[in-house]
Design goal:
By secondary structure, this protein is an all-alpha fold. The protein contains two helices and no strands. The longest helix is centred in the last third of the chain and has 18 residues, at 32-49. It is globular and about 40 Å long.
Length: 54
Amino acid sequence: MPTQKPILTFAADEELMKRIADFRFENRIETKSEAIRMLVEEGLKHLEKKPNKK
């Protein structure tokens, strides 16, 4: 069943792909897309907690 959510495509080097695969395996995440979504969510949460430097 196709998703109605927007799709994001990006390029990554082999080292980043390995790190994503390792994260996925260690956390028993079913798909690469879900692993990447989780990593982006956590990264954004982390950045949002930092004080805004302007």
